[in-house]
Amino acid sequence: METPLFTYTLRLADNALVLGHRLSEWCGHGPMLEEDLALANMALDLIGQARNLYTHAGSVEGKGRSEDDLAYLRDCPDWRNILLVERPRGDFAFTILRQFLYAAFMHPYFERLAASKDETLAAIAAKAVKEMAYHVRHAGEWVIRLGDGTEESAARLREALEDLWPFTGEMFEMDSVEQALVDAGIAVDPAVIRPIWDETIAHVFGEALLTCPRDGWMQTGGRRGEHSEHLGHLLSDLQFMQRTYPGATW
Amino acid sequence: MYAQALNVAEKAHADDPELRARFQHRVDAEEKIEPNDWMPEGYRRTLVRQISQHAHSEIVGMLPEGNWITRAPSLKRKAALLAKVQDEGGHGLYLYSAAETLGVSREELVEQLLTGKAKYSSIFNYPTPSWADMGMIGWLVDGAAIMNQIPLCRCSYGPYARAMIRICKEESFHQRQGYEIVMTLAKGSPAQKKMAQDSLNRWWWPALMMFGPSDRDSQHSDQNMAWKIKRFSNDDLRQKFIDATVPQGHFLGLTFPDPDLRLNAVTGHWEHGPIDWSEFNRVVRGEGPCNRERLKARQKAHDEGAWVREAALAHAEKRAARKAAAKIAAE
């Protein structure tokens, strides 16, 4: 039986690793050299966050599982990331818009988590705040450039928004696992983040000449282990070596 | 525009013997030549060729290692590999900037790479089918690159020399990291040891070829030595690399794929068997295992990024126009 703190920490870790993995797929293939480096930077931030969070999750669980055990030896139903982050990388508009939508949520989220009663989570969050501030700025600037760039870039950005929007609702979901932790002063209530996120989105979309879709039906399930077809393929890459050579040290 | 103006000025003085003599005197005195200084056209051309080839090698070199970023066997290795490949991209960036000080644009240089007019290091035309290749590239390929590049920190051209100082520091970190990957494999399970040995078998000879043809056959050596673009011969650097590397491999219990490899007790040098230069020439000519793939991957990234670069430019122009309009309205 997973404890709430374990599940909660794993959700944060899985989001960071899966999105970091998606960003890392761009390495060597970016639209320009400077952006290749920037995408790798953001990927490194997220993988770093994931490592700290997995280590913490392992120690919370108390069964001796390491960061690598958690990352490399779980199958899809045990992954707790939101569906947004497992979508394939798409084109640059898709990648950068997803990064913006995620970072605009995680930046204020980590700001509050830095005051968590769980000291390790608080320390991880305090470091991550600075990283996510850069992601919001960098990705936000690109959303504006693409939205107010050429006809093609604006069209691609609108297409990416149509694709991504139904996956944003899951960031704000709340369940009994997290409610208990919020009440205990350990986790952050995502409802508190909503108005901040809305404002960041409205500001950048305004400059990007992008209309926010009306909130309609939202995708859900990742946090409970109900994933899309894409996560399995991501894991078959990520976990290939550990699965092929069980127990080896690298 | 700027580059063109420079070229015109250049041609007027190209053969001025007095300028040439003064230039050579400065080089001989180990003074650094800076972008706005007079330089012979051949010196400029040689540097543009060498620096841009080096930059292209860094960029194409991201591909064989990038091949393992999503499959690295632990989170620590994944982060280190991603950071390493990112460093290579950073090296490409400083080197393109150093080349730009000689009056060419990055766009022109990239065009030369994509059309096949410019070369990049042939070593990156070999594939990376196994994780051990991530160790082997760090240990051997970066190790060989360092041997070639350390003397370039003293190259007569200032911007290149300064870029190389930073690059060499990072490369030596990569080399240690690569050796450590190989060491972990060599101390691991039989399957891991086999992986390391198989990878050494594939990379050893191509790594030795990285130093270029034997001095007897190298085209550019003498003039480049006089200009202090090059300081040691290909064969000397290759020997230095072999002497440093062979004991490291033996320490790990690995066998080099060269039956003639032996220590000469008199000279203290490791002597190697004949290098198959026909293979080298084949790969340089485009007949290596991955030449087409590598260039196509670069071309694809370039083509797929075109709309992004256009959008960034269009947006910058719109902003500038709006700013100008606002200024006029205010007046």
Percent of sequence in beta strands of chain A: under 5%
Average pLDDT of chain A works out at 97
Q: Given the structure, what is the number of helices of chain B?
A: 13
Helix amount of chain B: 55-70%
The secondary structure category of chain B is mainly alpha
Reported for the largest beta sheet of chain A, the result is: none
**What's the domain count of chain A?**
1
The greatest interface between two protein chains, and residues involved on each side, is: A-B, 48 and 46 residues
| Widest beta sheet: strand line-up of chain B | 1-2
Helix content of chain A: 55-70%
**Shape assignment of chain A:** globular
- Rounded to an integer, what's the Rg of chain A over CA atoms? 18 Å
Oligomer: heterodimer
Number of strands of chain A: 0
Report low-confidence residues of chain B grouped into runs of 5 or more.
Answer: 1-9
Number of helices of chain A: 11
* Helix-strand pattern of chain B: HHHHHHHHHHHEEHH
Radius of gyration computed on alpha carbons of chain B: 22 Å
CATH topology of chain A: Ferritin
Largest sheet of chain B: 2 strands, antiparallel
Rounded to the nearest angstrom, the distance between the terminal CA atoms of chain A is: 30 Å
Describe this structure in words.
The complex is a heterodimer of chains A (250) and B (331). In chain A, 66% of the residues lie in helices and 0% in strands. Chain A has 11 helices and no strands. In chain A, helix 5 (92-113) crosses helix 7 and helix 5 runs antiparallel to helix 9. The longest helix of chain A has 29 residues, at 33-61. Chain B has 331 residues and is mostly helical. A two-stranded antiparallel sheet of chain B has the order 1-2.
